[in-house]
Amino acid sequence: MCAKPGCEEAGEFRAPVAPPRGGGEGPGRYRWLCLDHVREFNSGYNYFAGMSPDEIHDAQRPLAGWERETRAFASTGGADRPPRWADFADPLDAIGARFGERMRAQAGRKDGKPLSGRDRHALDVLGLEADADRTALRRRYSDLVRKYHPDRNGGDRTHEARLRAVIEAYQQLKGSPAFA
After folding, report:
1. Which residue segment(s) compose the domain that 165 sits in?
2. Contact at 8 Å (CB) between 145 and 163?
3. pTM (two decimals)
């Protein structure tokens, strides 16, 4: 209910009873008013009523920290120096392992034959290493086709998308210079 005496409307709007004094954090005490009474309250509300000029100045003062002098930038082109990797501790090897995976994924073949991005993706689909030869490619393709083909699974077609991906990957690698 509205906090105004004699009002029967629902009190949906919050209005302060008095502004917080003494630098307290958070809002001061408040009451709930109906729309008409909160409009009346807002039209006559003065946060600084009853404050001395010094109290008003303190209330309007910028937040602490803005008055401090800013520190100078480092002499490395206006930016701080990044931490040295030697000083960084990675006990779970989270960064090193991720870097190692990326380096392995981008590694070339030992025989020097080039691999395109599509070739690398096809190798991942077939589950082959970058250094696999043509014999390993044929053997892996044959195993996966037997595994996913509906004739070998009693007519079950749930693996059809996987079979299609295996066939596309084999076709990509079969024509690749790395497997020529």
Report:
1. 105-179
2. yes
3. 0.44
